[in-house]
Amino acid sequence: MSKNAKIATGGVVVGLILWIWLPWWAALLIVLGVPAAAYLALDPSQRRRLRRVTRKELGR
User: Fold this and answer.
1) What sign does the CA torsion over 15, 21, 27, 31 have?
2) How confident is residue 59, by pLDDT bands cut at 50, 70 and 90?
3) Helix axes 3-21, 24-40, angle to 10 degrees
Protein backbone atom coordinates (compact mmCIF):
# COMPACT_ATOMS: atom_id res chain seq x y z
CA MET A 1 0.00 0.00 0.00
CA SER A 2 1.35 3.43 -0.90
CA LYS A 3 2.10 6.13 1.66
CA ASN A 4 -0.87 8.26 0.54
CA ALA A 5 -3.22 5.28 0.81
CA LYS A 6 -2.05 4.63 4.37
CA ILE A 7 -2.63 8.27 5.31
CA ALA A 8 -6.10 8.24 3.74
CA THR A 9 -7.02 5.01 5.52
CA GLY A 10 -5.85 6.42 8.85
CA GLY A 11 -7.87 9.57 8.26
CA VAL A 12 -11.01 7.58 7.56
CA VAL A 13 -10.54 5.48 10.71
CA VAL A 14 -9.97 8.57 12.88
CA GLY A 15 -12.98 10.25 11.29
CA LEU A 16 -15.22 7.27 12.05
CA ILE A 17 -14.03 7.14 15.67
CA LEU A 18 -14.67 10.87 16.09
CA TRP A 19 -18.09 10.49 14.47
CA ILE A 20 -19.07 7.88 17.08
CA TRP A 21 -17.65 9.61 20.18
CA LEU A 22 -18.44 13.25 19.45
CA PRO A 23 -21.53 15.12 18.29
CA TRP A 24 -21.68 15.37 14.49
CA TRP A 25 -20.88 19.10 14.43
CA ALA A 26 -17.76 18.68 16.59
CA ALA A 27 -16.46 15.82 14.42
CA LEU A 28 -17.11 17.87 11.28
CA LEU A 29 -15.31 20.87 12.79
CA ILE A 30 -12.24 18.74 13.58
CA VAL A 31 -12.21 16.94 10.22
CA LEU A 32 -12.38 20.24 8.31
CA GLY A 33 -10.43 22.39 10.75
CA VAL A 34 -7.24 20.37 11.08
CA PRO A 35 -6.33 20.36 7.34
CA ALA A 36 -7.31 24.04 7.05
CA ALA A 37 -5.10 24.96 10.00
CA ALA A 38 -2.22 22.93 8.55
CA TYR A 39 -2.57 24.72 5.19
CA LEU A 40 -2.65 28.14 6.85
CA ALA A 41 0.48 27.25 8.85
CA LEU A 42 2.51 26.93 5.62
CA ASP A 43 4.69 29.74 4.28
CA PRO A 44 3.40 31.48 1.13
CA SER A 45 6.13 29.78 -0.93
CA GLN A 46 5.13 26.36 0.41
CA ARG A 47 1.48 27.06 -0.42
CA ARG A 48 2.43 28.00 -4.01
CA ARG A 49 4.46 24.82 -4.38
CA LEU A 50 1.59 22.73 -2.98
CA ARG A 51 -0.91 24.28 -5.40
CA ARG A 52 1.48 23.78 -8.33
CA VAL A 53 2.07 20.11 -7.52
CA THR A 54 -1.65 19.49 -7.03
CA ARG A 55 -2.50 21.06 -10.41
CA LYS A 56 0.26 19.11 -12.14
CA GLU A 57 -1.02 15.80 -10.73
CA LEU A 58 -4.58 16.60 -11.77
CA GLY A 59 -3.41 17.18 -15.34
CA ARG A 60 -2.03 13.66 -15.70
Assistant:
1) negative
2) low
3) 140
